[in-house]
Every structure is written in structure tokens, then in C-alpha cells.
Write a structure and sequence with these properties.
The chain is built from two helices and seven strands. The chain is mainly β. A four-stranded mixed sheet has the order 2-1-7-6, with no helix packed on it. A three-stranded antiparallel sheet has the order 3-4-5.
């Protein structure tokens, strides 16, 4: 799977079954090529045109499964709020 394909996949939190949004970007280690985190624009952000109120930075270790149309993540609500950038 390519990174551009990840941007079309919706991220869902398995703890509260809430939709977090679609992958907006991927943080990876340039030396190893390993993915470090998925970055999901928060509510109210449409491709960055309406500004960035928040974005969820989800460490890759919290990704449970990547499917063809959804990504399941195991993130406690408190952790999601702490990783948001204001």
C-alpha cells in the first residue's frame, strides 16, 4: 500500500467507535523508512482550506489494523486530546 492510498482511508477509534477522520499525512523516520505516526486533520478542516483547529497525531503503535476502507486505532479519548495541536 502506498502513502497516497492511506489518505483515502477513514480512521476509527475502537474504544468509542468514533470516526476521527481521514489520514491527512504520515510521519515517518527518514533513515529507516518506518511510519512513526498517522496525522488526521481534526473537525472543521477540509484539506487545510478552512484552517487547522486541531489535528490528531496517532502513534503507529496504536494502529490495530489497516484495511481497504478503514484504519482501526486503539486510542484512549484522553490520549487523542493530548495529541491534538491547538
Amino acid at each position: 500500500m502506498r502513502i497516497c492510498e492511506l489518505k483515502r482511508i477513514e480512521v476509527i477509534n475502537i474504544n468509542d467507535c468514533k470516526r476521527l477522520g481521514f489520514v491527512g499525512d504520515v510521519d515517518f523516520d527518514i533513515h529507516t523508512g518506518c511510519i512513526l505516526a498517522l496525522i488526521v486533520p481534526g473537525p472543521g478542516c477540509i484539506c487545510g482550506f478552512l484552517g487547522h483547529e486541531k489535528e490528531y497525531v496517532i502513534p503507529f503503535c496504536q494502529v490495530c489494523q489497516i484495511g481497504e476502507d478503514i484504519i482501526l486505532v486503539d486510542v484512549k479519548r484522553k490520549d487523542v486530546e493530548e495529541t491534538c495541536k491547538d
